[in-house]
Amino acid sequence: MARPAQVVIVGAGMAGASAARHLAEAGFAVSVFDKGRQVGGRMATRRDRETGLRFDHGAQLLRAHGPAFRDRLDDWRARGIVAPWDAPGADAAVPDMTAPVRDLLAGLEVHVGRTVTGLTRDAAGWRLALAEASEVRVFDALVLTAPAPQAERLLGSAVPGLAGLAQAAYAPCWSLMLAVPQELPFAGDVLRPGDGPIAAVFRESTKPGRSGGAPHLTLHASPDWSAAHLEETPEAVQAALLAALGALLGTAIAPIHLRAHRWRYALVTGTCGAPCLYDPAARVGYAGDACLGPRVEAAYDSGAALAGRLAADLG
């Protein structure tokens, strides 16, 4: 009996998880590598060790516009992996935003804390160079799902069939995680000022399935502000955004927890122009929200599209 084709996926965010699940269901052997300490990519959650509070400091909501992701959301909702929050048609993940990705990757071979530093291909297939260890396995096909500039750097110019990577463009985002002694004075779960340094403020403690503790929030700076302050220190960004939030709400804020995180590739502003990119000669493909647009659903659909291309090619 012939062995199943071996596919390696670099990136364990929504696109990589979607591709992995669809390929596994099609009968392929899948291995996933990610440099992060946990899966999720920009569907990220950070837990503060001192307070135990959790912050979804990347993507905040899931919405469905098409049937495939709507069916997936319906399944997750039925199993308690997502639940409605903030507005009609919007869901937050339970107990944190990594949960849908973890569900897609359940039972598959996943390696976190592994940084891919190089890729080589010969007649036998694809090999990975890792910062942490030697990887001697050979894979029949390669899937890249990291932000397009990172994927492009890994590949170099060796795969002309993925030229569309250069079309992708992103805006950055500084994310501020803060806990406060009392609830901040704004109505609802989300504050969206509409202009200024702050794009949105999300009440983490009102999300479904969250534990108690001090009121805690995640603030996303606007793309323009984030770009203008991209190379500043986290400490300077913390101070500036805290002052901006105090000015917006008309009250002094004395946080009991404060931390900033920079997303250099946060919001897709220009796409690759196709649901996915695939070079059948090299058996390498790219999937991500950079292919279809700045939504979790776009990443899911792109991963599924690339899995379909690979399944048709590898048979």
Report on this model:
This protein is an alpha/beta fold. The strands form five sheets. The chain has a six-stranded mixed sheet with strand order 7-2-1-10-17-16, covered by helices on one side. The chain has a five-stranded antiparallel sheet with strand order 12-13-14-11-15. The protein has a two-stranded antiparallel ribbon with strand order 3-4. Helix 1 runs parallel beside helix 3 and helix 1 packs parallel to helix 8. The longest helix has 19 residues. The two termini are 15 Å apart. The mean pLDDT is 94.
Secondary-structure topology with pairs:
Elements: E1 6-10, H1 14-25, E2 29-34, E3 46-47, E4 54-55, H2 67-78, E5 82-84, E6 91-93, H3 99-105, E7 109-112, E8 116-122, E9 125-130, E10 141-144, H4 148-155, E11 169-179, E12 190-191, E13 198-203, E14 216-221, H5 223-228, H6 234-249, E15 257-270, E16 277-279, E17 284-286, H7 289-292, H8 296-314
Parallel strand pairs: 1-2, 1-10, 2-7, 10-17
Antiparallel strand pairs: 3-4, 5-6, 8-9, 11-14, 11-15, 12-13, 13-14, 16-17
Features:
315 residues, alpha/beta, 6-stranded mixed sheet, 5-stranded antiparallel sheet, 17 strands, globular
